Amino acid sequence: MRYTDMADELFGPGGRGGEGGGVRLASLRRGGVTITRVEVARDGLARPRGRYVTLETPRLSLLDERDTPVIEAAAAELRALLPPAGPVLVLGVGNRRVTADALGPRTVQHVLVTMGAGHGLPIRGIRPVAAIAPGVSQAAGISLQALAAALVGAIRPAALICVDSLCSSEAERLGRTIQLSDTGLAPAAPGSGRHLDAAGLGLPVIAAGIPTLMESDEGHDLVVTPRALDSVIAHGSALLGAAINRALQPRLTVNQLCWLSSQA
């Protein structure tokens, strides 16, 4: 089986990640979106213990912040993974100069920031939100973990949402599947420096992403990406940003949130 970050591919039919038990999987259909929830109930399996949710949609290259049914479904699943109150930091992981890796930084551009000077909204019940895309941490000689820890120490959020591009083992899922999890960033690729979790940071770490890469038949060093990758990143980041906004600010409608975030 090709390398994958997607829990439902590992633990679903044909996957080998759940051999020996300890995994619960259930699927449902809502508003044209197929939602699969995977719960890994014990340690030592192919993915860290915790909850994973995938939302399979029409191709994300054709979706954007106006696709309210998809946004509402993703927001509801994300909200269920988050603490009910307190500030939230959204971290866009990746390299904005590499299209396949730009999902995190591009999503941050669509997040409604409500913390700091000039970001206060005259609406009761608005949740404090900060968002940042630190770029390629190795270029500054600082690990992603150290950067995240410094940001958490400065902002003191109740939760961290990390957005990153993902890898799938199935070509047809590239650009049309969203994965959310409460396990933090835990790429299955050996040697990855993108590991952020509650144990290391001391607060809930939620991961959100869209698969934009797939290992090629020739080996680990080569990848294939979906056609219309620029469109997948552009529209996928807008959709994820809108879903994050809706999950964090349920008092506002999708249209209100999209207008407010576009004014920032």
TrEMBL record:
<protein>
    <submittedName>
        <fullName>GPR endopeptidase</fullName>
        <ecNumber>3.4.24.78</ecNumber>
    </submittedName>
</protein>
<dbReference type="GO" id="GO:0009847">
    <property type="term" value="P:spore germination"/>
</dbReference>
<dbReference type="GO" id="GO:0006508">
    <property type="term" value="P:proteolysis"/>
</dbReference>
<keyword id="KW-0378">Hydrolase</keyword>
<dbReference type="InterPro" id="IPR023430">
    <property type="entry name" value="Pept_HybD-like_dom_sf"/>
</dbReference>
<feature type="compositionally biased region" description="Gly residues">
    <location>
        <begin position="12"/>
        <end position="22"/>
    </location>
</feature>
<keyword id="KW-0865">Zymogen</keyword>
<dbReference type="InterPro" id="IPR005080">
    <property type="entry name" value="Peptidase_A25"/>
</dbReference>
<dbReference type="GO" id="GO:0008233">
    <property type="term" value="F:peptidase activity"/>
</dbReference>
<feature type="region of interest" description="Disordered">
    <location>
        <begin position="1"/>
        <end position="22"/>
    </location>
</feature>
<keyword id="KW-0645">Protease</keyword>
<dbReference type="Pfam" id="PF03418">
    <property type="entry name" value="Peptidase_A25"/>
</dbReference>
